[in-house]
Amino acid sequence: YDGIDFLSQTELKIDLLFFDFWVDEPVTNSYGSQVAEKHLEAYMKAKDKMNHKSLILIDDTDHAPPWKDTYLIPEARKDGFQVLYVGRQTLLARGIENPRL
Q1: Is the dihedral of CA 7, 12, 18, 20 positive or negative?
Q2: Going along the chain, which residue ranges are E strands?
């Protein structure tokens, strides 16, 4: 089942949005850009369904840009998410006071 289709159709509220790897399109020279655009598209479908207190976890963010987090993180920050951790994975949170890892 395609994640973007699911996020478009679900009426569930989201507490944790986990991004892992997928691209259903043929690989082109701008492969990283395709991945970045798909992850942004998924976030855009999910953002209005996310609870005020919610987390975004993006896997494999230690790749060179453009990658999964390249377009997603700036958009999520506009929506009030704060970056809590950056490494192999990146964690963002919204509505959580004094978040600690």
Answers
A1: negative
A2: 14-19, 50-59, 82-86, 89-94
One-letter amino acid of 21:
F
From CA 63, how far away is CA 68, in angstroms rounded?
9
Q: Can you spell out the DSSP letters for 28-43?
A: -TTHHHHHHHHHHHHH
pLDDT of residue 46: 97
Q: Cα(14)–Cα(80) distance, rounded to whole angstroms?
A: 15
What is the per-residue pLDDT across 36-58, written as a single tens digit (0 to 9) for each? Answer: 999 999 999 999 999 999 999 99
**Mean per-residue pLDDT of the chain:** 90
